[in-house]
Amino acid sequence: MKVEFDEDVCIGMFQCVAEWDAFEENKSTGKADLADSEEVEDGVFVREVPDDAELDAKFAARTCPVDAIKIYDDDGEQLIP
Asked: GO molecular function, one example (predicted)?
């Protein structure tokens, strides 16, 4: 499972931070950061989701009010949103 985070879409509500510890509050930008991620295009970050964090990652994506977080299965199919 992979998570994709679009920093440009993020509005800094930080609900994702409360749901999964891979998201961190960045006070200098007013947006969240996705730890241990790789920037795959300008402002879009991707990382693998550990098996024991899949539920937390899904909750983080579901709580994002602007859908800045997407979850994909191992086949590349989008699960959330």
From this structure: metal ion binding
Write out the two tokens for 5: 């985070």
Q: Does domain 2-80 correspond to CATH entry 3.40.30.10? A: no
Question: pLDDT averaged over consecutive 10-residue blocks of the chain (81 residues)?
Answer: 97 97 96 97 97 97 97 93 70
Domain boundaries along the sequence of the chain: 2-80
Please list, in sequence order, all residues whose beta carbon lies within 8 angstroms of the beta carbon of residue 34, skipping any fewer than 6 positions away. Answer: 3, 5, 22, 23, 45, 47
The model's pTM is: 0.94
